[in-house]
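Chain X:
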Amino acid sequence: MIRPFLMLAGFFGLTGVALGAFAAHGLKSRLAADYLAVFQTGVHYQLIHALALFGIALLALHAPSRLLVAAGSLFTLGVLLFSGSLYLLTLTGVGKLGIITPIGGTAFLAGWICLMLAAWNLRG
């Protein structure tokens, strides 16, 4: 899972920067300030978890484990559900999409728990 996690880290990093620039330059005049802040929250969490995926891939090179695979998978799911739902919510105005956001947040939390457990199981 090292290559897929590195590819996802790169993709989430690339699109996070692009979406952040889009929000700052393209959406600033089109969205209300509170919606712009929600969009930027999605970008923020996406970029954090792009870096986390990068770290998981590097760690998996030295200490592969199912917990690291679970953490990376949960971070990916979190980006898609948490950040994705915030992007869609702000761009479409469909408030019901906010129901999805906590599921993505829970995936992030579960991913961090898996990473902690993987660290606990390391030898050394």
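Chain Y:
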Amino acid sequence: MRYPIEDYDKYGYLRAPVWLWLGWLFLARAWVVFVIAGVSRQSGEKMLGIVYPDHLALYVDLALGLPAIFLIWLIGLRRPERSLISKILRMGKAVSASIIIIQLNVVMYRIYLTSGRFHWPEAVTLVVLCWFLLFVLRSRRVTHCFKGLSLK
């Protein structure tokens, strides 16, 4: 056994690391903003206008966040009797890396559109996406989590 017993869920599957959950939430940040804006009724439209002045950028980020939300949902449904979900989750590392690379390209394109001018949101997004890509590609725990290694 490579990991402490506390790192496994009640079905014997290795739990996803906290950094993976936080990274997925970062990939789905447009959905988080969208839900928060929907909950705050009066100021929701104003909040979306501040965070996403361009509606196309919101729609693109919502589309790019869907696979991360799908992975979050599927990892919660993982059970020994649900072999199809386990098969889909085996591709989770590749899907996560693909989403990150696509979002990196989108951010680079947005930087290109502003003629390379420095903006803090894009800079922070680039750093976080690069770090998360390295984490997903290099972490053994992430690999083991998606392989479905279990105690049983």
